[in-house]
Write a structure and sequence with these properties.
Radius of gyration: 44 Å
Number of helices: 19
Structural class: mainly alpha
Distance between the termini: 136 Å
Strand content: under 5%
Order of helices and strands: EEHHHHHHHHHHHEEEEHHHHHHHH
């Protein structure tokens, strides 16, 4: 309809550049640009159109031409990657590799990564190409064929000892493998490889420092390693990165930080006694741990009772699946950092001991200082009151141990060993002294009439002095009985009864000398076999 309201019939208009026939149709292109003879058409450039078969009048339908399908060349590596991807399709919940609301990788993604990593654990490659890769939380499932081959070729070189620069996402993927112990023999081997890679690759990208440093701590918490994290930090020169851990690298520093009594503020804690006091406390603590273990008490667990626990996830910021069943245990890294695993679940606390625990540690430290002051002859005495309601105190009391006596004995044992005089003898001079002594002995010997040789069976045993069996205390008699039976060493027996080993052995030997004129225990606190019958008589 036109602007004036009249109906108008639209007619076709010619297309510029095309030749029109009288019927209004477009002629095909000219072969020579002049004549009207159509040129040959290429079969590859045109489709066959059928008008009559289309249900809509005037509309044509394309009829695809058949094409020959050729078999692709066999590709074993591509097939292997396909099998790897199938592992991901089995876990639909994590197949999309989503993240949680706090930015962490979805747990399902971590599990897929772990299973795929184990599947390709021993795979090696020698791909000549190389393509970059950039992905947050890098994983195999998100990598293309060329990226996978690039990565595994690079990993093959690493395992041969060669590290070259590559996309950072590839590097993190390799670190994820090590954190999961993929491609290593055991956790110790994994830690060694992680440290080697970190020190070598940080030359190219120092950004990995902040991640690896936090994962090294988590590695020592998650995996039970023979050395403590404190020892690891010290051996590898990492003290500047973990100041809170290094500050408590030994028992003395750690327990001083939580103790109700701070021995470091004592006048006795002078510069020349720091090592002596710290070593003495560690010795006392070692003895306490041993005696508690015999009573089926974990001293450290009894002291470190964490409060306000919160969930701890190993290797935060990494794609990690908690693949290993964890035993129940506690890992104390500092006075305000403890990790507890119960039923394969990890918890974390910043408050690591109760008030009674702090009081008990305070008493142990104060009593240790009191006994050490007495041992060194310090001019001022110190007293410590055991007014603590704690499991350790109650359990030791039930089995007859006095904590005060035990600490005093341990301190004396330590001090005696720490201050003993070591005499070095020249073997050559000693031989000369022996030769001279023999010459002198021969000159002093006076011949005596030979005594009648009486068969040993007819000899009468030496009489035991009257009342000799009553000279030994009950503890000494039990010690001798234990030595005779061989059930345990005298050292173990003395520790269990809170008695210094040397004191117990000296008491037995002194009384044996009064009876026999000789000791019955040697320098190693072992019974002389020739006195076995006499000792058996004493303990009847």
């Amino acid at each position: 309809m036109g602007g004036d309201g009249t109906n108008k019939k639209y007619e076709s208009a010619p297309i510029i550049g095309r030749q029109q026939t009288r019927e209004g149709r477009v002629d095909p292109p000219l072969a020579d640009g002049k004549s009207g003879v159509p040129s040959a058409l290429s079969d590859d450039l045109y489709y066959e159109i059928e008008y009559e078969s289309c249900p809509i009048p005037g509309v044509g339908r394309f009829v695809p031409r058949s094409q020959k399908i050729t078999e692709p060349e066999p590709d074993a590596i591509r097939d292997l990657f396909g099998q790897m991807r199938e592992l991901g399709r089995m876990h639909r919940s994590g197949y999309g590799f989503l993240r949680t609301f706090d930015g962490r990788a979805h747990p399902g993604s971590a599990r897929i990564f772990y299973e795929q990593g184990r599947f390709l654990e021993d795979f090696t490659d020698d791909y000549m190409g190389g393509v970059p890769f950039s992905q947050y939380y890098p994983c195999y499932q998100m990598m293309g064929y060329e990226q996978l081959r690039t990565y595994f070729t690079w990993r093959t070189e690493i395992r041969k000892g060669t590290i070259r620069e590559i996309s950072l996402s590839y590097a993190f993927l390799y670190i994820y493998e090590l954190l999961s112990n993929i491609g290593v023999t055991d956790p110790e081997d994994g830690l060694t490889k992680l440290m080697w890679f970190w020190k070598a690759f940080r030359v190219y990208h120092t950004v990995i420092d902040k991640y690896v440093l936090q994962w090294l701590k988590a590695y020592h918490i998650y995996y039970e390693l023979p050395q403590s994290f404190q020892e690891f930090v010290k051996q590898n020169g990492l003290a500047e990165y973990y100041p809170e851990v290094v500050a408590n690298e030994d028992d003395f520093q750690l327990f001083s930080a939580i103790s109700k009594y701070d021995i470091r503020k004592s006048a006795f804690f002078s510069e020349d006694r720091v090592t002596l006091i710290a070593d003495c406390f560690s010795f006392v603590l070692q003895r306490l741990r041993q005696i508690c273990a015999r009573q089926e008490i974990s001293f450290d667990e009894a002291i470190f009772q964490p409060t306000k626990m919160s969930t701890w996830t190993p290797f935060t910021g990494a794609l990690f699946y908690p693949w290993m069943e964890q035993p129940d245990r506690r890992v104390v890294l500092s006075e305000r950092e403890i990790y507890v695993c119960e039923q394969n679940r990890w918890m974390f606390s910043t408050a690591i001991t109760t008030e009674s625990g702090r009081q008990l540690v305070g008493y142990i430290m104060k009593q240790t200082e009191s006994a050490l002051r007495k041992a060194v002859g310090y001019k001022h005495r110190l007293s410590a009151d055991l007014n603590v309601a704690h499991l350790v105190v109650e359990r030791l009391y039930e089995v007859g141990y006095s904590l005060e006596t035990f600490i005093n004995t341990a301190v004396l044992e330590f001090y005696r060993e720490a201050t003993k005089t070591v005499v070095q003898v020249d073997p050559g001079a000693l031989s000369m002294i022996r030769r001279e002594a023999l010459v002198t002995q021969e000159k002093l010997i006076v011949s005596e009439p030979e005594a009648e040789d009486v068969p040993e069976a007819e000899r009468e045993p030496a009489e035991m002095p009257e009342g000799a069996e009553n000279m030994f205390s009950e503890i000494e008699r039990r010690a001798l009985a234990m030595v005779l039976s061989g059930e345990m060493e005298l050292k173990t027996f003395s520790d269990e009864h809170g008695i210094m080993l040397e004191v117990l052995a000296d008491g037995i030997n002194e009384k044996a000398v009064d009876i026999l004129g000789d000791s019955v225990l040697d320098e190693e606190f072992v019974l002389y076999e020739e006195y076995r019958e006499q000792v058996e008589e004493w303990i009847r």
